[in-house]
Amino acid sequence: MTNPNKFEEIASKLGATARETELWKQLMEVSVAARGEEEKQVLTEVLRSLIGELGENQVAEKVTQIANELPEYPVVKVMQYIIQVSASLRREQEHTLSQLRQMLSELATPIIRIWTDMLLVAMIGNIDSQRAQDIAERLLNRVSSARAKVVIVDVTGVPMIDTVVGGFLIEMFNAIKLLGAEVILTGIKPEVAHTLVKLGVDFRMVSIARDLEDALRRGIAITMEESKKRRQLALSLAGSGSRESGEGDVF
Q1: Among 117, 125, 122, which residue's Cα sits nearest to residue 147?
Q2: Residue 140 within any structural domain of the chain
Q3: Least CB-packed of 46, 81, 129, 173 within 10 Å?
Q4: Are 227 and 145 part of one and the same domain?
Q5: What is the domain range of residue 163?
Q6: Which of 76, 95, 130 marks a domain boundary?
Q7: Which of 70, 71, 74, 30 is nearest to 50 (CA)?
Q8: In the sheet that 111-115 helps form, which strands lie side by side, from edge to edge?
């Protein structure tokens, strides 16, 4: 069995700080002596700390140094733990980055209910294909949940839209129409207009407004007309029901 003093000696060479020295010492003690769940738990915690501070490559190099000084050291087992812990940390980092991207997308592209049955989507900054897809998914969910009748898409803050992103926008407009809402597009720059024309956008599926004020006027007119139709339908159904009731009384 390795002398504990040897662990301290090696750990002092490997650790740049008192904390690192203690972690290296703990790593050697546990990997040599512990077994089962205790070994798995402690090695995982120690390696997470070391990899977080030094990176997986440097940790692997220093484990190799330990093996050079301690021939009986279970280097293969420790390397396997390094691989497992590194993979786990990468998954956590990817999940965190995904959440941050989602938060950024929501902050950069707010979806606001500005009138009865009307939503405003203000796009700001450069839009790549991933962000365009995120916006489309969020918007379609919101249109469905809010039962919106009008969606105003303001691209004033978008400097350029390439053909890939333009294709996503066309698909989004089509999907909004399938959900029963009208699309009003505003804030179009000459460059953006050129891209949309090249893509062959069917401008019958989307209304174009000069500016946000014009878009709001059109949107309010659409929602008011929709409300008028619903009232007329309700009155018509109520009148039809009354007539049927009266005819039933005659018999």
Answers
A1: 117
A2: yes
A3: 129
A4: yes
A5: 107-240
A6: 76
A7: 30
A8: 111-115, 118-124, 150-157, 182-186, 207-209
Q: Are residues 53 and 122 part of one domain?
A: no
> Strand pairing of 150-157 and 118-124?
parallel
Burial degree of 163 (CB within 10 A; 0-12, 13-18, 19+): exposed
- Chain segment 109-159, per-residue pLDDT in tens: 889 999 889 999 988 888 888 888 888 898 999 999 999 999 999 998 888
Number of domains composing the chain: 2
Q: By C-alpha distance, which of 221, 170, 220, 210 is closest to 188?
A: 210
Q: What is this structure's pTM?
A: 0.58
Other CB atoms within a 10 A radius of the CB of residue 192 amount to 20
Same domain, 127 and 68: no
Crossing angle of the two packed helices 75-108 and 56-69, in degrees rounded to 10: 170
DSSP letters, 155-178, are EEE-S---HHHHHHHHHHHHHHHH
Please check whether residue 177 lies inside any domain of the structure: yes
| Residues 205, 118 within the same domain | yes
Domain co-membership, 167 together with 116:
yes
Same domain, 11 and 128: no
Q: Which two tokens stand for residue 93?
A: 């980092």
pLDDT per residue over 53-88, tens digit each? 899 899 999 999 999 988 888 999 999 999 999 999
